[in-house]
Amino acid sequence: MSGQMVAFFIIGFFLLSGALYIVSTRNIMHAVFMHLLTMSFVAAVYILLYAEFIAAMQVLIYAGAMTTMVIFALMLTRTQSSPEGMRTAVDNQQKGLAFLTAAGFLAILLFVVTREKWVPLEGVAKSTGSVSHMGGIIFSAYVLPFELISVLLLAALVGVVVLTRKEN
Amino acid sequence: MAVALPFLTALGLIILVLMNIVFFMWAEFKIAGRVVDRYGPMETGRFHGWLQPVADIVKFLNKEDIVPAQADKLVFFIAPFVGFIPMVMCLVVIPYTYTLVVRNLDIGAFFIIALSSFTFVSLIMGGWASSNKYSLLGAFRAAGQLLSYELPLGLAIAGVVMLSATLNLSGIVANQTVWNIVLQPIGFLVFMVAMQAELQRSPFDLAVAESELVAGFSVEYSGMRFALFQLGEFFGLWALASLAVILFLGGWRGPFLPGVVWFFIKFYAIFIFLAFSRVSIPRVRPDQLMTLGWKVLLPAGLANIFITSILIVTVPDYKLPLAVCGFVILVFSLIFMRRALK
Amino acid sequence: MVPLSYYLVLSAIMLCIGIYGVLARRNAILILLSVEIMLNAVNINFIAFSRFVTPNTIVGQIYTIFAMAAGAAEIGVGLAIILLIYRGRETVNVDEVNLLKW
To answer: What ipTM, to 2 d.p.?
Structure first.
């Protein structure tokens, strides 16, 4: 039982229990704070997989900005601060069917994943990957998706500002 | 022993920072006093009140731990730690000399920026869990301020990283034959202003000192919990000031003295600059804060990256044109800053 | 060394937890959080494959960067739409936004 296995099981346990808490709690603010914790554990999984740059990006984007954005949206829609908000249930009537669907999908996925033998296409890793290596690949082979993603982010930014402008 | 060495270094580092708190708090009191022609603390301890910070810490420890009756207990307890622990983690990547670093990560500068994004959520958790309207409003204002100044901070660092072609902090220092403050003057200005806003020090301390918002997000916290918020801010000050020294002032490079001594000389110089600016600049209004963050610092940072990248790629000997263009744009952005702060 | 199938099982379980969350929650913001859980499960999958199958041209990590950026843009626009719905109808329960039903 190497150190990586122990770390993997601990992180996996906390990750899955955090995700389960998010989908089953009645308290929306607690769900958002647990979402922050879950994203941090996903960053820990990335570090186990030798992807430190992606882990730092995950913390910066999700744990930092995304949680704040969701909290601002929660406050602006007053979901739990009004008396009616506290009394409404957060789960709809389709809980049983949703559980069956998710369980069926999980069964199919686990069947596929544990039977298949994945072939390493490139042999042994030459290095554990570094930021300059990733930068070289992005700006040589993947420069078109890079430009497209910046256009997408610009469109999302302009769209959000236009959508939420008050008509005066 | 080889396994325990990073742990021992980290422990020694934390003890060093905790002992420095006493010195920093005392220096800040004294500077704040002398600038307005007062003496500062003179009583506690025989020599110029040097035990005043220790007295403050003992006062914090002695206070009663009041938790509001309707507060959300779990979130109330966790909020100071969510702000404090990532700031302590930032100390891992800071190199004090070639070999004195706990762990020389390849993503050093980015690691510190990513970890300092946890402070937004800690503020909001603290403000929300206090079940107090005013602390919630103060928490949102503070989070808005932190979010607005995170971008210029990242842009200032991006300029330096472009010059050194690595995110590794030791590599950035090793590349500085001439200090980066000469090559990236706007980057330094943007970094200094954004650092003060990120640490919520004066003149950017709207969230904790505004008279109509009582005391901001930490109004319901008393005793050691409040001290934990302040401690998190202090570790953040240490991390960001060390980052300023490494990125812009040449880290441990210097002629005669050993590297560590130069590092701490520059570090204390930055701290004294921050203490002076705390005392001499009046607090900004919220609209001035937002104008400064979005309309002055963000375009200045973007212009910096633009000019730096064009000059690095086209001109083979880019140092002199870069310094000249940098100073020109610095003058322009200072003019804009004056107009924005009216 | 943790074998690849362990990471794939972890990501499959997380994906199904996200599917349950999307189908069973009534509050629109909680549905968005469950969608984010699903996105992160998929990203774990990509990075696990990039580590074990293509460790030198780190295709999975590069895809993850783009997926994270696209996910962030999507959540932003989704929250803006939720705000608009709230302005019009004073509710964020997706059960009550059913004007187009037969």
So the answer is: 0.89
